[in-house]
Write a structure and sequence with these properties.
The structure holds two protein chains of two kinds. Chain A is α/β, with parallel strands linked by helices. Chain A is built from nine helices and twelve strands. In chain A, the strands form four sheets. Chain A has a three-stranded mixed beta sheet, covered by helices on one side. In chain A, strands 4-5-6 form a three-stranded mixed beta sheet, with helices on both faces. In chain A, strands 7-8-9 form a three-stranded mixed beta sheet, with helices on one face. Chain B has a six-stranded parallel beta sheet, with helices on both faces. A five-stranded mixed beta sheet of chain B has the order 8-9-7-6-11, with no helix packed on it. The chains are: A alpha/beta, B alpha/beta.
Chain lengths: 274, 426
């Protein structure tokens, strides 16, 4: 995680951001600390990035890159305003002992924002931020199956805003963010699915952090919480409204460095644990 | 019925291209999606090759022929499919039309970038020569050659490339780790480590010379005002600069310094205005005009030091381009901007590295002429100058925001023999 010391809305690169509306630094700091405390309470060890002035979105560490075993594929951001984050994330990866790879010039790839393992397969979002070519490149480099799915609603510009794997074969998703093909891929490949309603998707409920069998998510999704509980998951709800103004919530504020719960390679016990 | 036959005939006779798509295109449904989109957009397809991965992690591959009524329709379909990971193969030959007006391109001309470009002629890809942004491409089909041509040089009847078909751009693959041009390429900042930047510039200059390419210096008058002229003179004397682009001002102030020890009337040694010093620059210009030019002034022993002196002595190719506010100007100044552009164009051909120092307009003018693979370092106290250059398409530019005097002093110390002899103020 990266503390929100320099977080703010300094530009508009998604439909949630409004420079005029801005965000409240004190409230943001409080909400971020509450997330940190919740994760610590769940037994998570947290590694902190150093915040950098002028990089307000560095707090969204899910976009740092993609972790796979001891490899870290650093992001290549689509928008110039975020491109300055890459060297910090690369340096972080190197300092933690990862083999750091960067997609070639001309590709756009926004890390765990757009590429999420569910089982053996990497589910990948494209169109608004990452592109298909970069997902193919990642798949080739890692030797894993990659399924690119087109995102069609600009409010759900990253895959992690509308799709959340819980464990191999189980995921939460908001169908309205995908086209027919994308929906068919998810339905065809993930046997247990929780569909999120439009009004609850808007509260960024898919942007959740999964720790063991606990799901940490933003408040405002009671139906989803009930569905999760029926499947045997505990939920922790937080208020992350200041970050939603920037188009991110719990998941965006974290990068799981030992593999997401749903990633098959994590279960195989070969985590990098740097 | 007749019209349907006509349209299917037209389609058969219409325009076609091939695309290829690879990756996990079967399970991700990208392949069916691409085929559906071709039909939705009014095209037809033919799968010409398809290899399906054996295991789940194996990628698959498909080569697909696409046809539609018009080249525009095909281009539109391909433009859409590229978003879904497809890339065109076997495009058509490039199309040209003869220029119908001299000094202007035909409608729908292909407008160049500064990136390496190729055109397809009789099924073969040939490199476009003299790569330069914001030009057209003139084709000599008989000789099998294509070159960038500025608008003003178009002659009546010259075959000019139109449309995008048969043109491909090969972006520079830049390594991220190996040099200054790797890790410095983030953004313009005054907070970069200067010693590392300087070392990177010095290494690039050495590498350029080792490659047998020329180093170009594009300089503004601030080089002289800040007392950096001796550093530049030393770099030229020791063979580190082969080409100089500047305006009347740099040359004038440099010569004024040689003749009077002042720059715009201010003593370089003392930093004070000299009495009647404001006349010096005009007197300097007048002296050179009376002798006929800078070379004559050096040959006759009138100018005995400075940047322009070293240029003449070392045979450095210099282009001084005029501006509306020039005093004089010096007889060497090219006052017709189009002629100056052409002189610069000819002089950048073998340049492998360009160092732009403290001049916005000359830097941008030079950036416009350079292909993207020529490294450009722009040094200026004002970050906006550096940003401007990058914003105008010279994205390969590395910006260093710093005072030019310490930069040039350190660069000269790094590159030249008398490294320790750093002059006053060191």
């Amino acid at each position: 995680m990266c503390p929100p010391d320099h977080f703010g809305i300094e530009y508009e690169i998604n439909p949630w951001m409004s420079i005029q509306q801005g965000s409240d630094p004190e409230r943001a700091a409080g909400q971020w600390r509450a997330l940190e405390r919740t994760l610590e309470d769940l037994g998570v060890a947290i590694d902190l990035m150093t915040p950098e002035k002028g990089l307000p979105d560095l707090v969204f560490t899910a976009n740092a890159g993609l972790v796979y075993r001891d490899t870290f594929i650093a992001s290549r951001f689509r928008f110039g305003v975020r491109q300055g984050e890459t060297p910090h994330f690369e340096a972080w990866g190197r300092a933690r002992g990862f083999e750091v790879l960067t997609p070639p010039e001309g590709m756009n790839f926004e890390g765990a924002g757009d590429a999420l393992f569910c089982g053996e397969t990497l589910f990948a979002g494209y169109r608004f931020r990452s592109d298909v070519r970069s997902h193919h490149w990642v798949g080739e480099r890692l030797g894993v199956e990659v399924l690119p799915m087109e995102l069609v609603d600009p409010r759900y510009y990253h895959l992690d805003t509308c799709f959340c794997p819980l464990e191999a074969g189980v995921a939460v998703y908001y169908p309205g963010a995908f086209d027919d093909y994308g929906r068919a891929v998810i339905r065809g490949r993930i046997p247990t699915l929780i569909e999120v309603r439009a009004e609850e998707a808007q509260s960024f409920s898919c942007n959740a952090v999964v720790v063991g069998r606990t799901v940490v998510l933003n408040q405002g999704a009671p139906a989803l919480a009930a569905d999760l509980q029926r499947l045997g998951y505990a939920t922790r709800t937080l208020e992350l409204s200041e970050f939603i103004k920037s188009g991110g919530s719990a998941k965006c504020l974290t990068l799981r460095v030992d593999g997401e719960e749903a990633a098959a390679w994590k279960a195989a016990g070969s985590a990098a644990s740097p | 019925m007749a019209s349907r036959e006509k349209s299917s005939e037209a389609r058969a006779a219409g325009s076609g291209e091939e695309i290829e798509v690879r990756g996990h295109i079967v399970d991700s449904l990208l392949l069916p999606k691409i085929l559906d989109r071709i039909l939705q957009m009014g095209g037809t397809f033919e799968i010409r090759e398809c290899r399906i991965g054996v295991q789940r992690s194996d990628p698959s591959y498909a080569r697909i022929g696409i046809r539609a009524d018009t080249p525009e329709a095909v281009a539109e379909i391909i433009g859409d499919l590229v978003e879904h990971g497809a890339s065109p193969v076997h495009p058509e030959d490039v199309r040209t039309v003869p220029a119908d007006v001299a000094a202007a391109f035909p409608e729908n001309f292909y407008s160049t970038t500064n990136q390496r470009t190729q055109v397809r002629v009789k099924g073969r890809w040939i490199d476009v020569e003299d790569q330069e942004m914001d030009c057209g491409v003139a084709l000599d089909a008989a000789a099998g050659r294509a070159r960038c041509i500025p608008m003003v040089h178009v002659e009546l009847g010259m075959p000019i490339v139109v449309g995008h078909a048969g043109v491909r751009v090969l972006p520079e693959e830049r390594s991220r780790e190996t040099s200054l041009f790797g890790f410095m390429s983030s953004n313009v900042s005054s907070e970069k480590p200067k010693a590392v930047s300087l070392q990177g510039v010095a290494d690039s200059i050495r590498a350029t010379r080792a490659d047998g390419k020329k180093v170009l210096l594009v300089g503004g008058p601030a080089i002289v005002h800040t007392g950096s002229a001796p550093h530049v003179a030393r770099l030229i004397r020791e063979g580190w600069i082969q080409t100089l682009f500047a305006g009347n001002a740099l040359a004038t102030h440099d010569i004024e310094q040689s003749l009077y020890g002042t720059s715009l009337g201010v003593s370089i040694a003392k930093g004070e205005a000299i009495e009647h010093g404001h006349e010096h620059h005009l007197r300097a210009i007048n002296a050179i005009r009376r002798l006929g030019g800078i070379r004559a002034a050096v040959d006759q022993g009138v100018v005995t030091s400075g940047i322009m002196y070293e240029c003449v002595k070392q045979g450095v190719d210099f282009v001084l381009a005029g501006s509306i506010r020039d005093d004089g100007p010096l007889p060497d100044v090219v006052t017709d901007v189009l002629v100056a552009q052409d002189r610069m164009r000819a002089s950048v051909r073998d340049v492998g590295f360009a160092l732009c120092i403290a001049t916005a307009l000359h830097s941008i003018a030079t950036g416009n002429l350079l292909p993207a693979w020529v490294k450009v370092v722009c040094v200026d106290i004002n970050p906006a100058t550096v940003t401007k250059l990058a914003d105008r398409g010279s994205f390969q530019t590395i910006g260093i925001v710093t005072d030019v005097e310490p930069f040039l002093r350190s660069l000269a110390a790094e590159l030249t023999a008398g490294g320790a002899e750093t002059g006053p103020g060191a």
